[in-house]
Amino acid sequence: xxxxxxxxxxxxxxxxxxxxxxxxxxxxxxxxxxxxxxxxxxxxxxxxxxxxxxxxxxxxxxxxxxxxxxxxxxxxxxxxxxxxxxxxxxxxxxxxxxxxxxxxxxxxxxxxxxxxxxxxxxxxxxxxxxxxxxxxxxxxxxxxxxxxxxxxxxxxxxxxxxxxxxxxxxxxxxxxxxxxxxxxxxxxxxxxxxxxxxxxxxxxxxxxxxxxxxxxxxxxxxxxxxxxxxxxxxxxxxxxxxxxxxxxxxxxxxxxxxxxxxxxxxxxxxxxxxxxxxxxxxxxxxxxxxxxxxxxxxxxxxxxxxxxxxxxxxxxxxxxx
Length: 321
Prior knowledge:
Blueprint: H1 11-33, H2 39-61, H3 73-94, H4 99-106, H5 109-121, H6 127-144, H7 156-175, H8 181-203, H9 214-220, H10 231-254, H11 257-260, H12 267-277, H13 285-308
Helix pairs in contact: 1-10, 1-12, 2-8, 2-10, 3-7, 3-8, 4-7, 4-12, 4-13, 5-6, 5-7, 6-13, 8-10
């Protein structure tokens, strides 16, 4: 007997929280390695390990290799390119920004997901949640300070990454009813492998390594054999990538995007603590103010979801205001 959909509702938020832990590990580890390796070399190794874990463990547990058959290959490829763009832009910014700053600005993405869900998926959001999204954007502007003397162009990288990431999860909601989390995770890793290998073949020689600043150097640095002591970090990255990709896809399959997105803010205190204790980075006052507005807006959206939603049953459909 199949359980009603309300039984699986808590699995969406739980999957999101597990994914956040994996992604937080991923962010800190890539920042740690960014001074020694090219970005796409790290991503290629991470993705190969992640793909191996998915194919050896997760796919068999999800029903076997038959789950990889799909009639929506184009949508999977589009999702893959969205996540490649999000990763590339975010990690380029992360290589030169304090960890907490990059993560805080990137966290406009749950607000963008809420907005895009209304525009592209028809999920209704009321005026209070629309106001929360607007306040979150104000928080981003406070941190970025466009036109001010302290403006840092590198902060544009996580903002653009947030747009790509929001589109990724809107697409996840669109195809989640027919595609499993394992299927979506495998195709994303395949796109990562193809794109990273292509970048390595064309740019991995390091000829243009010193043609730009630190961000471009991270992208254009010559590839080389990893040191033996770095392999545990790279393997850990692969595990975090596979686990994070699977659980975040599961989260957006099982629950509405506007419910799951704010839960990703749990990564913010993790980023602050990692920045302080691992990298010695203490956030500036403007960063704290921006964080408060961005996180507060996201939590308000989540509160409105839990307050206004009624758990659907056969005789009581989900309602929205």
